[in-house]
Every structure is written in C-alpha cells, then in structure tokens.
Specification:
S16 Ribosomal Protein, Chain: A, 2 domains, 5 strands
Length: 177
C-alpha cells in the first residue's frame, strides 16, 4: 500500500485550512486517512504550521512519500533535514551527537529567521497605519482650509451687501420728514 503525506482541505470557501495527514495514495483528497500529523493555515502571515515532528519523521522513515507542498512544509519545519542527518548516522558518516548538534544549530537559526520575519511584518503594519493616519490628517487639513476659504469668501460677499442695505435706509430717512 503506497502511503503519502499530504494535505486534506478544510475551512470555508476562499479561506482554506489544511490538515496534514498520512493516507493511502488511492484514497480521495479529503477522504479516509491513516493518521493526522498536523495542521497548516496559509491564511496567516507567516503561515501557521502545527506539526507533530516525531510522527512525521517516523512516517518518512517508514517510506511515506510527501507531496510537493507537504515536502516544503516538512522541510520548513526541519523534518527533512533531520531525516537526512539520521541517514548520515546510519551510513557512519558521523555520530548521533554531531547530528543532533547540527540540527539544533539549524533550528536556532531558523527560529531567528522566523522571529525576524514576524517582527518585520508587525513593523510594516505599524508603518502603514502611521502613513494612513498622516495622509488622513493632511487630507483633513486641506478640507478645513478649503471650508475656511469658502466661509471667508461668503463673508466677504455678504459684507458689501449689508453696507448697501444700511446706506439705503439712511438716505430715505430725511425724505420721510
């Protein structure tokens, strides 16, 4: 029975959420599976991946073939690298302690990259929000200046009309005697 590690789609239309499953390759995409080993949410930035590392490594060592997307996810989480290192230990290229040291170093570097990306995303969001507020403030000031100019123009137009109406009754008043 050929076994695949693949994604099973869940979630609503336009907002996909995936389960990472181990399934018989002949089973339908969202159908029967052997074991669920994690979840993948591509809607967040960066994508949220919750994976049972040991189960994924165990299934890879048993011969399960990941699909292209699952291979990328497993590589991102370090499962593929760990399998590679364990293959080197089995061949006698280096001992298990060296393999674990290399893997721990890789994981710390990867965690630093992920945290840097997360910080960059939050900083970009903050900068974008500040820029939107500055643009809004500038637009409000332009609108306020335009309204003030209209009011001043209207007041200037109304002032001569009041002077003319005030002079007209004064001229007529002596005639009334």
């Amino acid at each position: 029975m050929p076994v695949k590690i693949r994604l099973a789609r869940h979630g609503k239309k336009g907002y996909a959420f995936y389960h990472i499953v181990v399934a018989d390759s002949r089973a339908p995409r969202d159908g029967k599976f052997i074991e669920k080993i994690g979840t993948y949410n591509p809607n967040t930035n960066p994508a949220t991946i919750d994976l049972n590392f040991d189960k994924a490594l165990d299934w890879l060592q048993k011969g399960a073939q990941p699909t292209d997307t699952c291979r990328a996810i497993l590589s991102y989480k370090g499962v593929m690298y760990k399998k590679h290192l364990l293959g080197g230990v089995a061949k006698g290229a280096f001992d298990e302690a060296t393999a674990n040291a290399r893997f721990d170093k890789w994981m710390s570097e990867k965690a630093a990259k992920i945290s840097a990306k997360t910080q960059k995303v939050t900083l970009d969001k903050d900068k974008a929000a500040k820029a939107r507020l500055a643009e809004e403030k500038e637009a409000n000031e332009k609108k306020a200046k335009a309204i003030e100019a209209k009011r001043a123009e209207a007041a200037a137009a109304a002032a001569p009309a009041e002077e003319e109406s005030a002079e007209a009754p004064a001229a007529e008043a002596p005639a009334a005697e």
